[in-house]
Design a protein that fits this description.
Number of domains: 1
CATH architecture: Orthogonal Bundle
CATH class: Mainly Alpha
Order of helices and strands: HHEEHHHHH
C-alpha cells in the first residue's frame, strides 16, 4: 500500500507501505493500527482522570498528548514536523512555519482562556469556538502522523473539562468528517465541522 501522505523525501514509512517506522520494527498495517488504538484508549482513561481545574489547554498540553500517548511506539512522538506535507489536494501548513503558526494559534486560545468556563454558556457558542480552533489545528497538521486522533482527543478533553461528554461523532460517516476537515484546510471554512460538533455535544 502506498503512503497516504505525499512527502518530498519519504523515508518516514517502511518502503511500499503506510506503516511509519517504529521502535518494534512492526511492518504490518493491521498490527500497528491495533497498537495505536490500544494506546489511544489507554491515554483517554489516564488523561480524563487527570483533568482538574488547573489544566491548561495550551501548546505544551497538546504536544504532551501526542508524546505521552505514542512515545512507547514512535521515537518522533511529540515532535513537530519541519517538512511539507500534503494529502491529495489538501496542503497543510508548510513545515518551516509549523512552530510559529502553532504559537499563533495557542496565543489566540490563551486569550480565549483556553475555552474554560463554558459550562453555563450556550452550547452553540462553545461549538463555534471548538470548531474554529479544531479547524486551525487540522490545517496546521503539526505532527508526522496521528494528528487527527490527537486533535480529537485534545478537544474531547476540553469538552469534558466544561462538563460535556466526549464529542460524539457516531451520527456521521467517516466521509462526512473528512469532507468537513478538507473544507477547513482548503477553504478555511469550519461551518460544516461546527455543525458536526454541535450535534455531538451533550452534557
Amino acid at each position: 500500500m502506498a503512503s497516504k501522505y505525499q512527502f518530498v523525501d519519504n523515508k518516514f514509512y517502511y518502503q511500499g507501505s503506510d506503516v511509519p517506522q517504529n521502535r518494534f520494527d512492526i511492518k504490518e498495517s493491521a498490527t500497528i493500527h491495533e497498537i495505536e488504538k490500544e494506546l489511544l484508549e489507554e491515554a483517554y482513561t489516564i488523561l480524563y482522570d487527570e483533568l482538574d481545574e488547573d489544566v491548561l489547554f495550551d501548546e505544551a498540553y497538546f504536544i504532551s498528548l501526542h508524546k505521552r500517548t505514542f512515545e512507547s511506539l514512535y521515537e518522533w512522538a511529540g515532535e513537530f514536523r519541519d517538512f511539507n506535507m500534503a494529502k491529495e489536494e489538501s496542503r497543510f501548513c508548510q513545515g518551516e512555519f509549523v512552530k510559529s503558526s502553532s504559537r499563533k494559534i495557542f496565543n489566540e486560545l490563551q486569550k480565549d482562556n483556553y475555552l474554560r468556563g463554558y459550562e453555563d454558556k450556550p452550547k452553540e457558542e462553545f461549538a463555534q469556538k471548538l470548531a474554529y480552533y479544531k479547524c486551525e489545528l487540522i490545517a496546521l497538521h503539526p505532527f508526522y502522523e496521528l494528528n487527527g486522533r490527537v486533535t480529537r482527543m485534545f478537544f474531547d478533553m476540553m469538552a469534558a473539562y466544561n462538563g460535556y461528554k466526549f464529542i460524539d461523532y457516531s451520527g456521521i460517516t467517516p466521509k462526512e468528517y473528512i469532507d468537513a476537515s478538507i473544507e477547513c484546510v482548503q477553504f478555511a471554512d469550519c461551518s460544516r465541522l461546527e455543525t458536526i460538533i454541535l450535534n455531538g455535544l451533550s452534557k
